[in-house]
Amino acid sequence: MTRSNVKLFLLVFSFVSIVSCDSNRVFDSYKSVPNKWHKDSIVSFKINPPDSTNAYNLFVNLRNTNSYKYNNLFLIVEMAFPHGKTIKDTLEYKMAEPSGKLLGTGLTDVKENKLWYKEQVVFNEAGEYTVNIQHAMRENGKVNGVVELEGVTDVGFRVEKINNN
Question: What keywords sit in the KW lines (predicted)?
Fold first, then answer.
């Protein structure tokens, strides 16, 4: 095997290993946000859970760049059930250390954050669920919200099996 073949093999093996380690994923999708996330822009996801007996953990996933200038993030997350019931939550997440260094994973200037939404959720209604996510950012001392939030590039939603090991 030549040196370049060995490198290629290791690269492919590493990729397959990383992808296969995500066996808890049931649903995982991202939607891009145009240049700035407008306060009235709602990012929606349609989910068809695999069963109505097992419990799942739910996450909001977010990718942001260094142009995100806040140390926290407020989101309004709404889940619409198949038979009409709706749950709406206002959530706050820490996005940066006190020093201003952004939290999240990633080696480039894009950071990925996996933010808890709900634990131990049982999808007890058959059919399609809709999850709507919008930002609700405010600046200190100002009544009106931030109209266009800079630095958020993608918003995602994830449903995971609960690992009972």
Answer: Lipoprotein
Question: Using one digit for the tens of pLDDT, what is the confidence trace for 104-120?
Answer: 888 788 999 999 999 99
- Token readout for 136 is 């609700």
- Could you state, in order of their start, the residue ranges of all structural domains in the chain? 24-161
Q: For tokens 């449903």, what's the residue? A: 159
CB 113 within 8 A of CB 95: yes
Is residue 154 exposed (0-12), middle (13-18) or buried (19+ Cβ within 10 Å)?
Answer: middle
Which is more confidently placed, 99 or 80?
A: 80
CATH number of 24-161: 2.60.120
DSSP string, 87-114: EEEEEEEE-B-TTSPBPSB-SSS-EEEE
